[in-house]
Design goal:
The chain is of the alpha+beta class. Helix content is 23%, strand content 44%. The protein is built from 4 helices and 10 strands. The strands form 2 sheets. Strands 3, 4, 5, 6, 8, 9 and 10 form a 7-stranded antiparallel β-sheet that branches. Strands 1-2-7 form a 3-stranded antiparallel β-sheet.
Length: 185
């Protein structure tokens, strides 16, 4: 009788902090603008960093935000039509010798920015400055679209064997809910 009860308590002690933290991160400040043949979206992931994640990054553990952005055309009689979808990463690596963060932007041809300031690094990691989605046939004037964005944080896999030794590192992973903006060109 004691073993199942102990296992249940252990599960809740390990699972609840992950659930409570991942519920805090969210997409905010989303702006949408029409461009020539598509839509540009910009947004910020708020509350994406806590002390444990900052310490993991500072220890040299590569960490990535994966952003997923998609546009769907709303239809009233049938399923919504997925018009375009894009996925890209922001990855941070801390260089302990230089005491600086290196942030790589996959959506910008793997552009790299370096900074010694942790606040600047957090801003670079959690801000999507403007991604353009262009449906193949272009946007239909007067049609209603949903532009959706979400973010996931993943720590990069550790070398063989260390992932079993440091199993708790996986507890830092999270994903936000989809943030939706209704748009009509």
């Amino acid at each position: 009788m004691k073993r199942p009860f102990l296992a249940l308590i252990t599960f809740f002690v390990l699972a609840l902090p992950v659930y409570s933290y991942s519920a805090d991160a969210k997409i905010t400040n989303a702006t949408v603008a029409a461009v020539d043949d598509g839509v540009t979206i910009a947004f910020v992931v708020a509350d994406a960093f806590d002390k444990d994640i900052e310490e993991a990054i500072k220890s040299g553990l590569d960490t990535s935000f994966t952003f997923r952005v998609k546009i769907e055309r709303k239809k009233t009689l049938w399923f919504d039509k997925n018009e375009a979808e894009l996925s890209f990463k922001h990855t941070v690596k801390y260089d302990t010798l230089r005491d600086e963060y290196q942030v790589t932007f996959e959506e910008d041809e793997n552009r790299v920015e370096r900074t010694k300031d942790a606040l600047v690094m957090k801003s670079l990691m959690s801000t999507c400055a403007g991604i353009t989605l262009a449906p193949e046939g272009g946007l239909v004037k007067g049609a209603e679209y949903e532009i959706m964005a979400m973010a996931e944080l993943h720590t990069v896999k550790l070398p063989m064997g260390l992932d079993y030794l440091l199993f708790f590192v996986k507890l830092w992973d999270f994903e936000t809910d989809w943030h939706t903006v209704i748009f009509s060109p």
